[in-house]
TrEMBL record:
GO terms for cellular component: cytosol. The keyword Nucleotide-binding applies. It holds the Pfam family DEAD. Belongs to the DEAD box helicase family. Residues 219-379 form the Helicase C-terminal domain. It comes from the Bacteria. Keywords: ATP-binding, Helicase, Hydrolase, Nucleotide-binding. It comes from Sulfurospirillum halorespirans DSM 13726. This is ATP-dependent RNA helicase RhlE. The lineage of its organism: Bacteria, Pseudomonadati, Campylobacterota, Epsilonproteobacteria, Campylobacterales. Residues 382-413 are annotated as: Disordered.
């Protein structure tokens, strides 16, 4: 099915063609017609499936058909969990709306950049605001933004927002929106808590899921290499030299590890950089741009990069450190093999990682044969777990019991 069958105007189709898009993904094929029919949506789809375009395209279509005269007023609010995803969604609105007779004014509202410039852009008039919730609430507290005319409210990567404590912030944002609006919720996973959040936003949403397709983990070639932790960096250097990978995304456990290893790999002649939340916004933007343009070939990242980053042609994802959660494993490897392209994901496994990786495999419904690379074979044995002290018999004191005792002691003293 080509995009031309989805009732999008010629100007949007022209922008799609220029960007090299001819066929909609499954989520786009299902969601775009529903949005054009003004339905509320609750959509679940894999990372890298094209969720963002599935709301950007029909929103542009509806906005352009009803563009009013005079100073622009905010008609669409899109919330995302990260600064990077915010910028990318805003860029998508600009890219796909570039040939419209009247182009939408799009403002990104994110932390890490001067709030004054964002306030100025809003006050000059804008049609679409793409924001992280924290910075949006900062601007709302200054009473410098009017959301009373919003017609489209979007949560992108909604499940990730739950991890960031978004639930408490949502109430304040919803109070500022008109009751009559179109709600579009997009998520890679769908925990119970997500359902509770969704019920506060919409009561009549159409559920859309493309889980019938093969899950991400089945579309990407995966390898598990057993290696001692101290040999991971030398092994990675060998793999990079032996293979013709264009772009490699390496996931690290923390920011310090990402910075340190990037420095070491540059000394070995690799075009390497680190990417994490402590970088200034301009540094993050430069790093991502350089990676996309292949000026950087190896990007050492923390899990901030595992959600929503729109980086095409990542040849290989390396789990230098395993993620804590199965969902993060899926999101990490979903950075490769995007939009039907072949991808490769490699996980380094030490003795201490074996039980955790077995759990990840079980929850993903897969079973990988581990391998070893000559010269980097896994040595030693798994450390024995120390037995803890014997459990205390009887009922443990609850927090309430302890609080009552403390209050009694305070009263008697």
């Amino acid at each position: 099915m080509p995009f031309s069958t989805l009732k999008l105007c010629p100007q949007i189709l022209q922008a799609l063609a220029e960007a090299g898009y001819t066929q909609p993904t499954s989520i786009q094929e299902k969601v775009i017609p529903l949005v054009l029919e003004r339905k509320d949506i609750m959509a679940r789809a894999q990372t890298g499936s094209g969720k963002s375009a599935s709301f950007v395209l029909p929103m542009l279509e509806l906005w352009s058909a009803n563009k009013g005269e005079g100073k622009a007023k905010i008609k669409a609010l899109v919330l995302t969990p990260t600064r990077e995803l915010t910028v990318q969604v805003a860029e998508a609105f600009v890219t796909f709306g570039k040939f419209l007779h009247v182009k939408p004014k799009v403002v990104s509202v994110i932390g890490g950049e001067k709030i004054g410039e964002q306030l100025y852009d809003i006050q000059q008039g804008c049609d679409i605001v793409v924001a992280t919730s924290g910075r949006l609430l900062d601007i709302m507290s200054k009473k410098q933004i009017d959301l009373s005319r919003v017609e489209f409210f979007v949560l992108d990567e909604a499940d990730k927002m739950l991890d960031l404590g978004f639930e408490q912030e949502l109430g304040s944002i919803l109070e500022a929106l008109p009751a009559k609006r179109q709600n579009l919720l997009f998520s890679a996973t769908y925990p119970e808590k997500m359902q509770a959040i969704a019920s506060k936003i919409t009561k009549n949403a159409v559920d859309v899921s493309i889980e019938a397709e093969a899950p991400t983990v089945e579309l990407i070639k995966q390898r598990a290499i057993e290696v001692n932790k101290e040999n991971r960096a030398p092994l990675l250097r060998q793999l990079l030299r032996e293979n013709k990978w264009e772009l490699v995304l390496v996931f690290m456990a923390n920011k310090r590890a990402a910075d340190n290893i990037a420095v070491k790999f540059r000394k070995h002649g690799f075009l390497a950089e680190s990417f994490h939340g402590d970088l200034l916004q301009e540094d993050r933007s430069w790093t991502l741009k350089s990676f996309k343009e292949r000026k950087i070939r190896v990007l050492f990242a923390t899990d901030i990069a595992s959600r929503g980053l729109d980086i095409d042609d990542v040849s290989c994802v390396i789990n230098f450190d395993l993620p804590r959660a199965t969902e993060d494993y899926i999101h990490r490897i979903g950075r490769t093999g995007r939009a039907g392209k072949e991808g490769l994901a490699i996980s380094f496994i030490d003795h201490e990682d074996k039980a955790h990786f077995a759990l990840i495999q079980k929850r993903c419904g897969m079973k990988l044969e581990t391998e070893q690379i000559k010269g980097f074979e896994l040595e030693g044995v798994a450390p024995q777990k120390e037995k803890g002290s014997a459990p205390i018999k009887g009922k443990r004191k609850s927090k309430k019991d302890k609080l009552r005792e403390a209050q009694k002691e305070g009263a008697s003293s």
